[in-house]
Design goal:
It is a single chain. The protein has no helices and 24 strands. By secondary structure, it is mostly beta strands. Strand 15 and strand 16 form a beta hairpin.
Length: 296
């Protein structure tokens, strides 16, 4: 340095430029599904320079995280995100020299599929029952469904369900060989491994049992024949009752048909001798039917 008189003086000082530490932000599983996501971040690969140690860790997580920051911990577990998409996160490490370094790490939160079941007719009668199942599931954003896992009889380990046919993994025809309430479950998985399930119910109703009693002689002469029939011994399921009796007395009968639990004075024309088929069809309050035939 020089003054106005042209005089000068000199001073020397030594400065030290310190290396900064190396920050490395890691995450154990960086690609997870939205439901149940929980990320574990660590700074295990971060390093301090020779002669120093790391003494602080400052984490800043994406704004959609339930925990947006953490100070002092090299490991942070259970970081959860409320929305799907790519999430940016930051780590700053500090050492004993007061120096720092920054590292960024992204994680991916995947959309969930939504499982859905459609049953064409979920309440049917036992006789000839055939249930049509189809999936109304959606895969989630930027995803596709890769697996459909159907369980048609959860409570009985599929014991009473019988697959009749399937046109694809999400459309089935199924028959049940028992009456009652059945619980059905569909589990769907998308191409990111995200899973959803849905339960539905169906009912298989018991059919009534039609029975015919011939109250008159079952073999009569053609002239002046007259038959009396009863369906009073017919029975319905425990949760139902009979509401309709439909009779068909066969060829040459007068009347040809009838209703009610009992029909009297059925005549067969003089030109129609021979065996006659008498048919009774019963219907219950569930809409289930059963028929039986006797001959006179």
């Amino acid at each position: 340095a020089f003054d106005a008189n042209g005089c000068s003086d000199t001073i020397k000082k030594t400065i030290t430029v310190l290396e900064h530490p190396i920050a490395v932000a890691n995450v154990d599983d960086d690609d997870q599904c939205l439901t149940g996501n929980a990320f574990r971040f660590n700074a295990d690969s971060s390093d301090a320079v020779s002669g120093s140690t790391l003494n602080n860790y400052k984490w800043t997580f994406h704004s959609s995280a339930t925990q947006t920051s953490s100070n002092g911990n090299s490991v942070v577990s259970g970081v959860t995100y409320k929305t799907i998409g790519t999430k940016d996160n930051q780590l700053i490490v500090f050492d004993g020299n007061g120096c720092s370094d920054t590292s960024n790490v992204d994680v991916e939160v995947r959309d969930m599929p939504t499982a859905g079941i459609d049953i064409l007719d979920s309440i049917q009668c036992f006789a000839d029952n055939e249930y049509d199942f189809s999936s109304t599931s959606t895969a989630g954003a930027s995803s596709s469904i890769v697996k459909y896992n159907w369980k048609f009889d959860i409570d009985n380990n599929e014991y009473y369900s019988n697959i009749i046919s399937s046109s694809s993994n999400n459309t089935y025809k199924v028959n049940y060989d028992s009456i009652g309430l059945f619980n059905v479950r569909l589990i769907v998985t998308n191409n990111h491994g995200c899973i959803d399930s849905v339960d539905s119910k169906l009912i298989v109703n018991e059919n009534p049992i039609a029975r015919i009693a011939i109250l008159s002689a079952d073999t009569q002469c053609l002239t002046e024949n007259s038959y009396n029939f009863s369906g009073i011994s017919s029975s319905s399921a425990a949760n139902s009752k009979l509401i309709k009796y439909q009779w068909d007395f066969g060829t040459g009968a007068n009347p040809k048909t009838g209703t009610g639990s009992r029909v009297n004075n059925v005549h067969y024309a003089n030109t129609n001798a021979g065996l006659k088929n008498v048919k009774l069809t019963d219907t219950d309050t569930n809409g289930c039917t059963h028929d039986t035939v006797v001959q006179v």
